Amino acid sequence: MTIKHDTLTFTRTLKHPPARVFRAFTTNAELEKWSPPDEGMNMTILEGTCEPGGRLVWTCGPGDAEGVRVVSDYFHVAQDTAVLFSEAVYMRDDVLSVALVTVSLSGSTETTLEICAQVSALDPEMAEGYGHGWNAALANLEALLG
Predict the structure, then answer these.
(1) Residue 1 clears pLDDT 80, i.e. is over it
(2) Percentages helix, strand, coil for the chain, rounded to the nearest 5?
């Protein structure tokens, strides 16, 4: 088995202050709205919070169908400026990918958002799909913020 490693960077300028964007990244109800990686997919947080030492356990799949399970561990959460977490994606009990994700926010009336994801994928499709998923989720975030 070959493990694929990749570093992905996503940058957006959002017409909202960092406090508003930060809230979208750290509030469970908002995360569920914008995080689905594709149209027709649902993300449901089963447990947890986005705080230092916190863990979120999600499910993601089409409609009510069983999909993947995502476990996110939060290491650093700095109000309105940064979030650092790991994200492991599982299909049943098999890990598909693990990523270290850094979210950086800067600005005053607008937010410069930069996300760096260092991904290790055991499933070759996950390596390609990871970038697609983040791009789709960020488009959802922009739509949510208006």
Answers:
(1) no
(2) 25, 50, 25
Which domain range does residue 15 map to? Answer: 4-145
CATH number at residue 135: 3.30.530.20
What are the C-alpha distances in Å from 81 to residues 16, 19, 39, 128? Answer: 13, 8, 29, 28
Per-residue pLDDT of 48-96, as tens digits, reads 999 999 999 999 988 776 789 999 999 999 999 999 999 999 999 999 9
CA-based torsion, 121, 123, 125, 129: positive or negative: negative
Residues 6 or more apart whose CB falls under 8 angstroms from that of 29 comprise none
Between CA 104 and CA 116 the distance in angstroms is: 9
Q: Are 103 and 113 in contact (CB under 8 A)?
A: yes
| Total domains, the chain | 1
